[in-house]
Design brief:
The structure is a single chain. The chain has 395 residues and is of the alpha/beta class. The chain has two domains: 3-244, 4-Layer Sandwich (Metallo-beta-lactamase, Chain A), CATH 3.60.15; 252-394, Flavodoxin domain (Rossmann fold), CATH 3.40.50. Helix content is 35%, strand content 23%. The protein has twelve helices and 22 strands. It has a seven-stranded mixed beta sheet. Strands 17, 18, 19, 20, 21 and 22 form a six-stranded parallel beta sheet that branches. A five-stranded mixed beta sheet has the order 12-13-14-15-16, with no helix packed on it. A hairpin with a 2-residue loop joins strand 1 and strand 2 (9-11). Helix 9 (293-302) packs across helix 10. The radius of gyration is 24 Å and the shape is elongated. The chain binds MU-OXO-diiron. MU-OXO-diiron (FEO) is lined by residues 79, 81, 83-84, 145-146, 164, 224-225.
Length: 395
């Protein structure tokens, strides 16, 4: 598959319909993904990014059908992560002397990954590459989302090639934002931001304001995953500014794991208590061992407050909850409140452990949490209800 974005600019990437896990097992991709590469033809021709290594041969073969590879003048490597640079070794084997444009950090990471001495050309923000009538203007995008990340703006066609920023993990035969279901598009764009870009929110704000401040027209934003933004393309930049501003909705998420249903029953009572105190707030319950962890992280991103629940096991917490805590600690959420709860039979450490983790992860703790011994009876369930009411009042 290939298609034209505008005369002289073609998509030459790969749609990966089968992908269900990305970054190893770290990120669930329920709707597949795409690895977007772009061919820009003027008096000179530039290839922007490649695809993931399992598709390297298919990519290079397709590219060779699209253009004599020797007619590619410039190769742009916006980011060394394998999903975009994976076909570079095979491509550069065919055109070994062509220049590869990247950032100074890109030079380090590309050499680190592939151990090749290609004809690297290091660029920085503001550097320009003339293609003839049009030119590419490079913009370093450090930590969006790697230290080596880079974007470029194509004059004339007013295209921002944004690499990972503004992407979504979607496989679709309709590769423009106005041709896909907007609810699916924004669900995936939100999940992508929540799970990948949250820790870098201050840099997101700074970079978007820097690029928007240039007052350049933008007709297309072409990310390296998912659909191209051509209908009101800056809408996704506006969304990023909202998401980067310690985003929250009027939502409380109760996330728990349970061994014999005691902690689940506490979770449901706490939810009733919250709704009794505040019937406007959205309350969602997630059994973390039965839900997709990246989808739950996205719900944490949308929440103004969360409650984490686990029974005590071996003086600790259940392992699905440990994985969630590891993830939300790394993502550095801000402006969110939290509390913990759980059942126990003997020693009862889980609530304190959850409190400590949440506090270290940057959540503002509301109280010391709630724990109940053995299976919760009527008294413990009434206390859980009151705990939920109290929590709602404090958030
Ligand atoms: Fe950071 Fe799409 O790779």
């Amino acid at each position: 598959m290939k298609f034209e974005i505008t005369p002289g600019v073609n998509w030459v990437g790969k749609i990966d319909w089968e992908l269900r896990k990305f970054h190893g097992e770290e990120y669930s991709t329920h709707r597949g993904s795409s690895y977007n590469a772009y061919l820009v033809r003027d008096e000179k021709t530039a290839l922007i990014d490649t695809v993931w290594s399992p598709f390297a041969k298919e990519f290079v073969d397709n590219l060779a059908r699209e253009i004599d590879l020797n007619k590619i003048d410039y190769v742009i490597a916006n980011h060394a992560e394998m999903d975009h640079s994976g076909a570079l070794p095979l491509l550069m084997h065919r055109i070994p002397d062509k220049p590869v444009y990247c950032t100074a950090n890109g030079l380090k990471s590309l050499k680190g990954h592939y151990h090749k001495d290609w004809n690297f050309q290091v660029v920085k923000t503001g550097d320009k590459l003339s293609l003839g009538k049009k030119e590419l203007i490079f913009v370093e995008a450090m930590m969006l989302h790697w230290p080596d990340s880079m974007m470029e703006y194509l004059t004339g066609d007013a295209i921002l090639f944004s690499n990972d920023a503004f992407g979504q993990h979607i496989a679709s035969e309709h590769m423009f934002n106005d041709l896909v279901d907007p609810s699916e598009l924004f669900e995936e764009a939100t999940k992508y931001y929540a799970n990948i870009l949250t820790p870098f929110s201050p840099l997101v704000t700074k970079k978007i304001n820097e690029v928007v401040g240039l007052n350049l027209p933008v007709k297309f934003i072409c990310p390296s995953h998912g659909v191209i933004w051509r209908d009101n393309p800056l809408q996704i930049a506006q969304k990023y500014l909202q998401w980067a501003a310690d985003y929250q909705e009027n939502q409380i998420s109760i996330i728990y794991d349970t061994m014999w249903d005691g902690t689940r029953r506490l979770a449901e009572q706490i939810a009733h208590g919250i709704k009794q105190a505040d019937d406007k707030v959205t309350v969602k319950l997630f059994n973390i061992s039965r839900r997709d962890i990246n989808d739950v992280v996205t719900e944490v991103f949308k929440s103004k407050a969360i409650l984490l629940g686990s029974p005590t096991i071996n003086k600790g917490i259940l392992n699905a909850m440990s994985a969630l805590i590891e993830m939300i600690t790394g993502l550095k959420f801000k402006n969110k409140k939290a509390a913990a709860f759980g059942c126990y039979g003997w020693s009862g450490e889980s609530v304190k452990i959850l409190n400590d983790h949440l506090s270290k992860a940057g959540f503002e703790m509301i109280g010391d949490g709630f724990k109940a011994m053995w299976q919760p009876g009527d008294e413990a369930l009434a206390q859980a209800l009151a705990f939920g009411k109290d929590f709602a009042g404090k958030v």
